[in-house]
């Protein structure tokens, strides 16, 4: 069977992006296996979040950080990426 | 107490995961791929980087459509939620009137969206449409094809006609679940009609109201078919919402790259709003 996926128009940057997302999910799975229960806690947002919620918030927030950077600053996204990592660390630490 | 961990259940979820992969994940991945490239067809793509996102974020057309969407959703909620509560409060709670009202309320919900659009498109025409013709006969200068205000009124009235029933049915379900003992206690205390509503009916309806607000917000924010059929986004761009703009870009202009970028931003906004609503709902449950 010839599985032609050219219509999906893969590029290395987008493949790397999805690779990182997949790795994050695998990592979260491994974390859950090692420490089951999702580590629920009430953080600065004053409602209970699990580590899955915190990953979701980190990814969603990072997407908006990148968009805001593109719209307000420019197309060099490395600083936006650095800001997103700081934001994600903050979310995992305090939310 | 020790829990028994049995992961075999995951195999039962596997078919759903495969289905979701084919219907959502793979198309979403493709949209991400398209959003950073340009194409003229024949599966030939050229790298565009973040160009489409920058173009989109500085596009007045996009922000105007977004503002229209938000205004539309706000108006819809401001009308449909109070109206739905009012109708639900006045519906009979027992007797033959109950099934009659429930059927009448359900009817608009059963009509396909494009048919609703067609009904109102004809209904509003000032040459053959019942509403358009008689409004003009009464001296009201109504023409939804040429006047942006009339187009907005038509779309809002159409949506109210189509979807208020959903709010009514949800509120009604909340109201009939209130035991008679609550009303009897209120009567003994000499509570006014307003006090009964404020302290008995409204708290009991809160959960279903939250669902109603969530559903109506999401639906109205993603509205496409009805305004597309009635006004096609016009006159001018006055009723061009994000979804209509997106389809025009993707299918009308075949600009797949910009359309993919727009889809992703639209998707992120919907995702954020869904999360906010979901969080509010689940935390409300937890507090109860």
SSE class of chain B: mainly alpha
Name the average pLDDT of chain A: 91
- Low-confidence parts of chain B: none
Strand order of the largest sheet of chain A: 1-2
Query: What is the succession of H and E elements of chain A?
Result: HEEHH
* Largest pleated sheet of chain A: 2 strands, antiparallel
Q: Kindly report how far apart the N and C termini of chain A lie.
A: 48 Å
What series of H and E elements makes up the topology of chain B?
HEEHHHHHHHHHHH
Mean pLDDT of chain B: 90
Shape of chain A: flat
The assigned structural class of chain A equals: mainly alpha
Protein traits:
heterodimer, A: 95 residues, mainly alpha, two-stranded antiparallel sheet, 3 helices, 2 strands, 65% helix, 4% strand, B: 288 residues, MetI-like fold, two-stranded antiparallel ribbon, 12 helices, 74% helix, Sugar ABC transporter permease (chain B), transport (chain B), transmembrane helix (chain B), Sugar_ABC_transporter (chain B)
Task: Write up what this structure looks like.
- The complex is a heterodimer of chains A (95) and B (288).
- Chain A has 95 residues and is mainly alpha-helical.
- Chain A has one domain.
- Helix content of chain A is 65%, strand content 4%.
- A two-stranded antiparallel ribbon of chain A has the order 1-2.
- In chain A, β1 and β2 form a beta hairpin.
- The longest helix of chain A has 23 residues.
- By secondary structure, chain B is an all-alpha fold.
- Chain B has one domain: MetI-like fold, CATH 1.10.3720.
- Chain B is built from 12 helices and 2 strands.
- Chain B has a two-stranded antiparallel sheet.
- The longest helix of chain B has 32 residues.
- The radius of gyration of chain B is 24 Å and the shape is globular.
- Chains A and B meet through α1 and α2 of A and α1, α2 and α12 of B.
